[in-house]
Design goal:
Elements (H helix, E strand, L loop, with lengths): L10 E2 L21 H7 L2 H4 L3 H17 L5 H20 L4 E2 L5 H13 L12 H37 L4 E6 L2 E7 H26 L1 E2 L15 H7 L4 E2 L3 H6 L2 H27 L7 E2 L18 H25 L13 H23 L2 E2 L1 H8 L6 H10 L4 H18 L8 H7 L7 H4 L2 H6 L9 H14 L1
Parallel strand pairs: 1-2, 5-6
Antiparallel strand pairs: 3-4, 7-8
The structure holds arginine (ARG).
The site of arginine (ARG) has 10 residues, from helix 6.
Length: 475
């Protein structure tokens, strides 16, 4: 994987004294307005595509020699020049220029400066339109692999936490009202499943990212005898694009990537929301570590779940990027249109935001302290096993609708008496239904409620244990 380029670089703005010649300057008699230069340049952000731009150019130069379009020695000089440029950029000594618009022209111009006119042969049978499509696809392959790994680390952390707290019970909620008791491990592994689907979506997206567009030229292909499959092999692509016009105008793969990331953020946001609620004094189910919380500048007692809140908040940025890209593409006629340069910032921001969010949420989870007693106490809520009482009656051959009615009246009676279902006397129960016996108390205990939920995918401890064993074997 290429080193990720994220640091800021200095980009020189246009100066009258040092105006760089435009590679496309031939048919122009007037200089570009400085305002236009600033408006149209993508170099302030697309410079980070440089490892891919250079790798793509090297493969292209090799292909040009292999097919006899340029000589072997010309190709070697170009490749050596590109190696030098890679070092210059990585070490920070490369001077980016805004007059050269984008990363492609900055590198090409420097190549010609370094090795002379032979450098001008690199762009044979190529256009920036297919070049930029290649760069983004290569960039996304790396980002997908990295995010896939980060999802795996978060899953591993969830499994470890579920494993450590196997016997902990808490209320499961619907409508944020206590519903039925569940195992904490079962609750945590629900997130494992979401992340599993996230990985799956990225793998699926990868198949469509991993298609090689170079050789489409500006839009119609080329008259020169290029070998696209050779370039694809050099760069590890699974296939070559079929249609040159589609190759330069397709950004579906980018939208799919951001869409997959939007779902990842939605999952992280939901998890964050739970952590915010659970760490409140009202719930007191967990404490977040000091390293992953922040204080208040005015209220000394506060320990705020800012990391979780920011993750929830940053989800909006990624959704915004998805809408940006969809809107960007919706009105474009074939083939390349300059609007498409606007794809980069939402893409970069999405990949950066998701990667950072996944890393930080994983670390935050590792430092969570679970308050088993508070969870258990909340799970002992007087009516939480009402469904179990109905199921008890069902086992005694009472139709479920009738059982539901009886339990409803039991809840009403217990409320009048100021007690929970487990504390009501058998005499009271008998008034409601003659089918109720002494064994009812065991049936409606929290422990048995959880233990009996052995249906496939249910919260019973035997199920959790089995699932954890499977997951540990899988990793
Ligand atoms: N900087 C451009 C982009 O990001 C590269 C392609 C430019 N092509 C063109 N015909 N002006 O999309």
């Amino acid at each position: 994987m290429a080193t990720k380029a994220k640091k800021k670089v200095n980009v020189k703005t246009a100066t009258k004294a040092a105006t760089k010649a435009k590679p496309w300057g031939g048919r122009f008699t007037e200089a570009t307005s400085e305002l236009v230069e600033e408006y149209t340049a993508s170099i302030p952000y697309d410079w980070r595509l440089y490892p891919y731009d250079v790798a793509g150019s090297m493969a292209h130069a090799m292909m040009l020699a292999k097919t006899g379009i340029i000589t072997k020695s010309e190709s070697s000089r170009i490749i050596r020049g590109l190696e030098g440029i890679l070092k210059e950029i990585a070490s920070g000594s490369f001077s980016f220029s805004i007059e050269l618009e984008d990363i492609h022209m900055n590198i090409e111009s420097r190549l010609i400066e370094k090795i002379g006119p032979v450098g001008g042969k690199l762009h044979t049978a190529r256009s920036r339109n297919d070049q930029v499509a290649l760069d983004i696809r290569m960039y996304l392959r790396d980002e997908i692999a990295a995010i896939h790994d980060l999802l795996g680390s978060l899953q591993k952390t969830l499994v470890a936490l579920a494993n450590k707290h196997q016997e902990v019970v808490l209320p499961g909620y619907t409508h944020l009202q206590r519903a039925q008791p569940v195992l904490l491990g079962h609750h945590l592994l629900a997130y494992y499943e979401m992340l599993e689907r996230d990985q799956d979506r990225l793998e699926d997206c990868f198949r469509r990212v991993n298609v090689m567009p170079l050789g489409a030229g500006a839009l119609a292909g080329t008259v020169l005898p290029i070998d696209r499959k050779f370039v694809a092999r050099q760069l590890g692509f699974g296939s070559v694009s079929e249609n040159s016009m589609d190759a330069v105008s397709d950004r579906d793969f980018a939208i799919e990537f951001v869409s997959a990331c939007a779902l990842i953020m939605m999952h992280l946001s939901r998890l964050s929301e739970e952590l915010v609620i659970w760490s409140s004094s009202e719930f007191g189910f967990i404490t977040l570590s000091d390293a992953f919380t922040t204080g208040s500048s005015i209220m000394p007692q506060k320990k705020n779940p800012d990391v979780a809140e920011l993750t929830r908040g940053k989800t909006g940025r990624v959704y915004g990027s998805l809408v940006s890209l969809l809107t960007l593409m919706k009105g474009l006629p074939l083939a390349y249109n300059r609007d498409m340069q606007e794809d980069k910032e939402p893409l970069f921001d999405t990949a950066d935001t998701v990667s950072l969010a996944l890393s930080v949420v994983t670390e935050m989870l590792k430092g969570v302290t679970v308050h088993k007693k508070a969870m258990q106490k909340a799970a002992e809520d007087g009516f939480i096993t009402a469904t179990d009482l109905a199921d008890y009656l069902v086992r005694k051959n009472v139709p479920f609708r009738r059982a539901h009615e009886v339990v409803g009246r039991a809840v009403l009676r217990a409320t009048e008496l100021g007690c929970g279902l487990g504390d009501m006397t058998l005499a009271e129960y008998r008034k409601l239904s003659p089918q109720i016996d002494n064994d009812v108390y065991d049936a409606i205990s929290v422990k048995s409620s959880v233990n009996r939920r052995t249906s496939y995918g249910g919260t019973a401890p035997v199920n959790l244990k089995k699932r954890l064993q499977t997951l540990k074997k899988m990793r």
